[in-house]
Amino acid sequence: MILNAAQLCKLLDGELVGDGEKKIHGPSQIDKGRPGTVTFLANPKYEDHAYTTKASVLLAGRSFVPREPLSLTLIKVDDVYAAMMFVVEKFSKNGIPEAGISDLAVTDPSCQLGTDISIGAFSFIENECSIGSRSIIYPQAYIGHGTSIGEDVIIYPGVKIYPNSQIGDRCIIHANAVIGCDGFGYRPNEEGHYVKINHVGIVIIEEDVEIGANTVIDRGTLAVTRIGKGSKIDNLVQIAHNVAIGDHTAIAAQAGIAGSSEIGDHVRIGGQAGIAGHIKIADRIEIQAQSGVHTGKFPEGTRLFGYPAINYLDYLKSYALFKQLPELIKRIEDLERQLATTKKLSE
Amino acid sequence: MILNAAQLCKLLDGELVGDGEKKIHGPSQIDKGRPGTVTFLANPKYEDHAYTTKASVLLAGRSFVPREPLSLTLIKVDDVYAAMMFVVEKFSKNGIPEAGISDLAVTDPSCQLGTDISIGAFSFIENECSIGSRSIIYPQAYIGHGTSIGEDVIIYPGVKIYPNSQIGDRCIIHANAVIGCDGFGYRPNEEGHYVKINHVGIVIIEEDVEIGANTVIDRGTLAVTRIGKGSKIDNLVQIAHNVAIGDHTAIAAQAGIAGSSEIGDHVRIGGQAGIAGHIKIADRIEIQAQSGVHTGKFPEGTRLFGYPAINYLDYLKSYALFKQLPELIKRIEDLERQLATTKKLSE
Amino acid sequence: MILNAAQLCKLLDGELVGDGEKKIHGPSQIDKGRPGTVTFLANPKYEDHAYTTKASVLLAGRSFVPREPLSLTLIKVDDVYAAMMFVVEKFSKNGIPEAGISDLAVTDPSCQLGTDISIGAFSFIENECSIGSRSIIYPQAYIGHGTSIGEDVIIYPGVKIYPNSQIGDRCIIHANAVIGCDGFGYRPNEEGHYVKINHVGIVIIEEDVEIGANTVIDRGTLAVTRIGKGSKIDNLVQIAHNVAIGDHTAIAAQAGIAGSSEIGDHVRIGGQAGIAGHIKIADRIEIQAQSGVHTGKFPEGTRLFGYPAINYLDYLKSYALFKQLPELIKRIEDLERQLATTKKLSE
């Protein structure tokens, strides 16, 4: 959506000062303003920026009187914060596809499609899928055979979903994420060659889950890889086969969970952290970035750090001394020298 | 493929008890049964689950007599395990495209295409490619100029292959993997600006290799990046330019191999591990997850751990003492105090 | 492009010896020659390879006289290195799309398109985008609403760009990279459920930036995620929301920068390294692979290593002693024993 300043002013019930024709397509911060955006001045200490910002329109309070000429259009409003929230909300819909199925998408008659859904060009929906009402499939997505997608789901461009996956209501899956591929499972034969284990399980993603761009979630071997409701997964994360993630758990970018591990509810996993396979992480555990967790023995709520991970404060204490090891070794050498002397003296 | 219970019963030469119309599209575990799936009861200790599972059909032995009413359809067979293996195999083909080239795919007349291949909608095959018989290219794949793909290969949706790559027979490449992109090679000029080094080498992937979703393999600078036969690479792995991976080597998710390194045969690399550039890893080395290997000096079969990686047991021993550093420092302080006292006494 | 030996010989103003019909599509190294390629012999010590290489054509000096029969075609030239550079350059254009907009691409009349651009099949360009002259959009790319792309840009297959992104002149974005997706930002409510924070900021990528395959760059929350001019980013890298990367900075594969951090100019970040959020990294800092940088306190040009990262040499010194901890503990035990004896003696 693109509005001009006069249209926006009317929506905000404001007072226009300057060019009403200026076009805007989104909001920006006053010190980082861009042409074509609307910014705001709520705190007088930022007033200097009003005279230098590259934004096209400025929202300010009714009583604001510029002490220098303004090059941008001014809209005076009663409540600057409320107006700005309105603006953010207004333009947040920009670029979102309208309802409708593109002539350039492939869908099969065997699919069950809800009302007001959008399927973009070059998307491919295999047989026996169901897609709930108001869900949006952007262009270039692939939805494998027998997959069910809930209501109000957003699937961004290039997402690939393997067969028989289940995606809950209100999930958001970002571009080029892959859901339901085969797990990394092989049996070595007598010669040490790997024989592939068929993966016939599925992925279940419960409602209100968000999954980042280029993240990968493997399907179960025989059973289910499950992401609990309300959990949020960042970009480039690896979730291996048979993993179960609890509810309202957050996993930051580039973290990885190895096969068959269970992660509790309200767990927080930092970026690039790794969780070994076949362990169980209790509820509300916090894992610092880059840590490697090799055991599930830590109680609920523990904060972990290190490689292998231990209690956060213990790791910091040991690491502080690790940095002092060159001094410690000198103290030990000193002790050895002194003791040798003392021994001679006392002989 | 979807079968009803009666059809499956006939295929298994079994005895049907209950509704023969129940539809099934795959297998599941009895304690994690899902509607539309068939599960099995081989070990009597799991019988309780038979009365609560959500699966639609249950396979059990000829002699099985339920002690409570069953809500699902029962099929009695001679050998429950054999029947279940048949079922897993049967449905593992579900969602696999049939042979044929989609009208919505682009292929060039200069390509050599084998028999019984499948090319999905919105896939793009550039000039001078060859694709061996029975290979499957799912929708939305890109196969660059001059690429050769062997027989019985599976290329999942969204895979992008840069020009002149060579993919061996029976390889499997999972969704959104990228093969053959330029390596990270620049020359800084006098001002410290990076000047791109052209990458005109190629990628050769030998037969029976499997490559995970969103994994990236760079092309060689002038020569070849090579993945040896039978090697298995998990999701989100980085293989840099000029790397050579041996045969039957396994690389877990999110591991990375820097430029020009050589990895031996039957090597096992854990998740998130990193291998420095320009080193050579001997055969059968095992690298623990998250380790950072900076040297190729370790002999065949060594197990490595740590950052930088050392012998596995050595790392564990040192790390055990790292955790005790706060106590060690106290012992050193204690020694210092005692020695001071002793010296005074002996003076 | 494919040339035969006679055509190449003419372009190089050389002397042809052997079959002029041999077809070539690229260069290779003499010890790793491939059929269909041209290789070169400049240093006599590699002459043996000339009789065994699988390349189809050999470039050598005017005075070269083979001491054995050659199976490949020979082209004699004045300056072998200059000829080889010409060949590398010549074939580096292979597989690059010609100018033109595919009938199978979707573009909107509201887009501003420069001259001599290429847009490949199954690419989707949303409303209000602009694409500069001579830029190449490969097949299967998605360019979101309001995005501006400079001149001479290359967007490889499967790249997904979210709305309102800005891509500078001469940028290269490799396959399946994702630009401008929502950052990982939530507010927990009273029950510990995550409420999504709308991301209405943008991504600005300045000129001459290269971005690797499957890399992800999040959009700003309200403002901008910025990549400075001339910076180079490898594959599978994570750049979080509101990050600012300086000019001529290099970031190796699988590294991650957490939200709102600022990275200086000419910084070098090793593979799998992690930078914490909300810190500022000074110019010309060098971060070793897999390091975790938690503070911005290090001065310009510092070399960092470790987890958390400290000065490179300090880390090496401490780590050398970490490996000796099992011996150190023995020395401490020895001191304790000796001191006990000494004390007894002096009593």
Overview of this structure, please?
- 3 copies of one chain form a homotrimer.
- With 347 residues, chain A is an alpha/beta fold.
- The first copy, chain A, contains 5 helices and 39 strands.
- In chain A, the strands form 6 sheets. The first copy, chain A, has a 12-stranded mixed beta sheet, with helices on one face. Chain A has a 9-stranded parallel beta sheet with strand order 9-12-15-18-23-26-29-32-35, with no helix packed on it. A 9-stranded parallel beta sheet of chain A has the order 11-14-17-20-25-28-31-34-37, with no helix packed on it.
- The longest helix of chain A has 22 residues.
- The model of chain A has no long low-confidence stretch (mean pLDDT 93).
- Chains in contact: A-B, A-C, B-C.
- At the A-C interface, strand 4, helix 3, helix 4 and helix 5 of A face helix 4 and helix 5 of C.
Task: Summarize this structure as a short list of keywords or feature phrases.
homotrimer, about 350 residues, alpha/beta, 5 helices
Helix-strand blueprint:
3 copies of one chain form a homotrimer.
Chain A: E1 3-4, H1 5-12, E2 15-17, E3 23-24, E4 26-27, E5 37-40, H2 47-50, E6 57-61, E7 73-77, H3 80-91, E8 100-101, E9 112-113, E10 118-119, E11 124-125, E12 130-131, E13 136-137, E14 142-143, E15 148-149, E16 154-155, E17 160-161, E18 166-167, E19 172-173, E20 178-181, E21 186-188, E22 194-196, E23 202-205, E24 210-211, E25 216-218, E26 224-227, E27 232-233, E28 238-239, E29 244-245, E30 250-251, E31 256-257, E32 262-263, E33 268-269, E34 274-275, E35 280-281, E36 286-287, E37 292-293, E38 303-306, E39 309-311, H4 312-323, H5 325-346
Parallel strand pairs in A: 4-5, 5-6, 6-7, 8-10, 9-12, 10-13, 11-14, 12-15, 13-16, 14-17, 15-18, 16-19, 17-20, 18-23, 19-24, 20-25, 23-26, 24-27, 25-28, 26-29, 27-30, 28-31, 29-32, 30-33, 31-34, 32-35, 33-36, 34-37, 36-38
Antiparallel strand pairs in A: 1-3, 2-7, 21-22, 38-39
